[in-house]
Design brief:
Length: about 325
Amino acid sequence: MSREGTGRSEVLVVGEYFCDLIFAGLSNVPRPGAEFFAGGLTVRPGGAYNMALALTRLGIDTSWAVDFGTDLFSRLVLEQSARDHLDPAAFNLLAYDVQRVSAAFTHASERGFISYSQTEVLPPPVALLDRLRPQWLLQTFRFSRPWLDFLRAARARDIRIFADCAHGDFTLETPGVREFLSLVDIFSPNEAEALSLTGRHEVDEALDDLTAIVPAVLVKCGSLGASAIARGRHFDVAAPSVEVVDTVGAGDAFNAGFLAGAVWESGFEECVRLAVACGTLSTLGAGNAALPDGAELSAYAAGLPGATPPPGSVSCLAFLTS
């Protein structure tokens, strides 16, 4: 179901772009006073671009609210967004530089990053919500007052909010964090983020803490799959064993898979299964090369154990609001 049929966008992604410079084949970890040559370099869009692209590939009517400037990195990502057929309806083109770049390196299977964001990341105007009228908002983890006001505006318009997480120097006791979580419908950290945020040592304990604030919590557990709690029910979905090529962006693909299921009116557990399947498929190629389309995702998820929905299951949205 698309904007043309309902007057509403299906998903609005909100979050900044990054231009990722990924160095590979280093002989050692970079250190001051030494120069190392990489064996390979990949330049590709990053940040919230990955979630917008994954949803678009799945056939979900997706807009991405993002600021671009006049700088080289903005131009590179804008040019790639056109090649990837991203909807530019919510792009905000500014008349000055908005440099956001991340240099990543890999050595002995470990990754390191040096990132730079030139300008503050602010929420889009509330008028965008009225223009696009999205069913879902896919929101990055921001808990300053302007972002909290934006989330409140979305809730006032009956927009469902799916929030991703991020690593950072904050916990549940940091001002604004609990308020942020109380405004979202579904929160999806990875295992390390959930433990860091709650100060717990076990995922089940972290889930209990988070579901005291958020109606539904999905914890991404990497190659193990995902653990979720919603309305007092606990769901564990195992990930299939695959030959992993690249895990970058798997969490973004996970988010997209879940929201695709929600838009398709799948049951909650099936949405979690689609999320795990989409994240798994994304690891089978470098970068975004393996992101599936809707038919590929549905066929792959249908082949996973326990993929038959239980009798009488209701849609994800009905389950969350019942």
